[in-house]
Design goal:
The complex is a heterodimer of chains A (306) and B (176). Chain A is α/β, with parallel strands linked by helices and 306 residues long. In chain A, 33% of the residues lie in helices and 19% in strands. Chain A has 2 domains: 207 residues, Rossmann fold; 39 residues. The radius of gyration of chain A is 30 Å and the shape is elongated. By secondary structure, chain B is of the alpha+beta class. The N and C termini of chain B lie far apart (51 Å). Chain B is built from 5 helices and 5 strands; from the N terminus they run ααββαβββαα. In chain B, strand 4 and strand 5 form a beta hairpin. Classes of the chains: A alpha/beta (306), B alpha+beta (176).
Chain lengths: 306, 176
């Protein structure tokens, strides 16, 4: 689900790489991570098994830059390809705005490709989506192998819904950018078709309580979450930096760590201090009253005996 | 319009209404106030409000040492996995999740059905304090979200040049 934030002037889109196991989904992300201009790309985070197979997902944030005054960001995920992990695939697919299906071109892999595509269709259906309602690009990967299916064969078996296809050798970086560029274009075009304004630069609002300034616009769409955060205090964003340049064929796992240095210590809040002061004053008054009462009582007693 | 089409339109509309969540400037002000109060009372380090797709809605406190985007994606993934576990065990959901570290810990609290509040705290406070005040914050946020949900929808518009500008930006970004 695309998130449009008119106040921060941001558009956030979610792209998912889908496909059978070992078809090259993670390799695609590694290449994007390596080749995309800095600092537009953040850390590549992998939740993987010890055997370097995707367990939950790989995640790569990508900042396309300014598009018509909106900071446009893509959050790119891969799913685990193995049949066993269908429940996690379903979770990652939730809220996707576009899907790249990475097919293995190697002869003998067609059954796995078809099974994975069917699985994608079923999982999309569970989220109320279909191949016709969401941008999909097919990537025919591993075209450098000696014994591969022809593009026509792959098209006939996999591309019944006439999606655009791109031939690729992801390991060498070929076809990776064209695939992502194609899908990103389709996602943004779809967004533009749904939400393009009649008049340039204007954003209409039936709600009089919100000021009509570009920094404080509000929004809603069919299947769009809109956020207005004009008055949110400015915050320092930790820019994602690459931990290490990915080696070909090897996954770079970025750790998410909370730095402890340069963090302001939390001291007692003014509200808490006031509360403490109140308690001290109350106790002082109470003790004084009790002391006065005791004094009065004793003086009366002394008066009685004298 | 045929009867079937009419029915489909209504169903689609209901479906989209369920998906839709609109935040106005004053909504974010109210949300930030609740989060800020919770931050102060619980003495936690920061609060992130994240939607279940992994996009961040707003945050408060000291987030300077956190890669917010990645944390948001991981929080959404973690929560989705736990919800699925709950479903398999016959529970509706596990509404609170807690990950304890040596120094820093994080608590995830589900707010309504589509937003997660992630609270990062350290040894300046205790998990009990965070839990105690998280309940009140969660109730306050749910009330705000209910108001948002029942508000009539308006239409979003992007700049007319968005499509052309997107093509240019993509050409520039993916130039090999």
């Amino acid at each position: 689900m695309v998130q449009i934030n008119f106040s921060l002037k941001e558009v956030n889109c979610k792209i998912v790489y889908y496909g059978p196991g070992l078809s090259g989904k993670t390799t695609n992300l590694e290449v994007v991570h390596k080749k995309a201009p800095q600092p537009s790309v953040g850390d590549l985070t992998s939740i993987a098994t010890e055997g370097d197979r995707t367990l939950f997902f790989d995640f790569l944030p990508l900042n396309l830059g300014q598009v018509a005054g909106m900071k446009t960001k893509f959050q790119i995920y891969t799913v685990p390809g193995q049949v066993y992990y269908n429940s996690t695939r379903k979770l990652v697919l939730q809220g996707a705005d576009g899907v790249v299906f990475v097919a293995d071109s190697k002869r003998g892999k067609m059954e796995e490709n078809i099974e994975s595509l069917k699985n994608l269709e079923e999982n999309l259906k569970e989220h109320g989506l279909s191949f016709n309602s969401i941008p999909v690009v097919l990537q025919y990967n591993k075209r450098d192998l000696p014994d591969v299916y022809s593009v026509e064969e792959l098209d006939e078996a996999l591309n019944s819904f006439s999606a655009p296809h791109v031939e690729a050798v992801a390991r060498d970086g070929e076809g990776v950018f064209p695939t992502l560029k194609k899908l990103a274009g389709m996602v943004l075009q779809s967004l533009n078709d749904q939400h393009s304004s009649v008049k340039s630069g204007s954003v209409s609002s039936p709600h009089s309580r919100t000021t009509h300034t570009p920094a404080a616009e509000e929004t809603t769409t069919n299947s769009t979450t809109a956020v207005a955060t004009a008055t949110t205090p400015p915050r320092t964003r930790a820019t994602g930096t690459r931990q290490a340049a990915p080696t070909k064929g090897r996954r770079t796992t970025a750790s998410v760590a909370y730095g402890s240095s340069a963090r302001p210590r939390i001291v007692s809040s003014p509200r808490r201090q006031k509360r403490r002061q109140g308690i001290v004053i109350g106790m002082t008054v109470g003790i004084s009253v009790v002391a006065a009462a005791i004094g009065l009582y004793l003086s009366n007693m002394l008066g009685f005996f004298s | 319009m045929k009867l079937g089409e009419d029915k489909k339109l209504i169903n689609d509309s209901d479906h989209l209404k369920d998906q839709r969540l609109v935040f106005y400037r004053e909504d974010i002000e109210s949300i930030d106030k609740v989060l800020g109060d919770f931050l102060e009372l619980s003495s936690s380090r920061c609060n992130l409000l994240i939607d279940k797709e992994g996009h961040m809605v707003t945050c408060c406190g000291d987030t300077s040492s956190i890669d917010e985007q990645t944390v948001a994606a991981l929080v959404a993934g973690s929560y989705a996995a736990t919800r699925e576990m709950a479903r398999l065990l016959g529970e509706d959901e596990f509404s609170v999740l807690f990950h304890q570290g040596k120094k820093d810990s994080i608590q995830l609290t589900m707010i309504g059905d589509r937003t997660i509040m992630a609270t990062v705290f350290d040894d300046q406070t205790t998990v009990g304090m965070v839990r105690l005040y998280a309940k009140a914050a969660s109730d306050g946020l749910e009330k705000i979200f209910e108001e948002i949900r029942h508000r009539p929808a308006s239409k979003v518009s992007l700049d007319k040049s968005f499509g052309d500008s997107a093509k240019g930006a993509l050409d520039c970004f993916f130039a090999e």
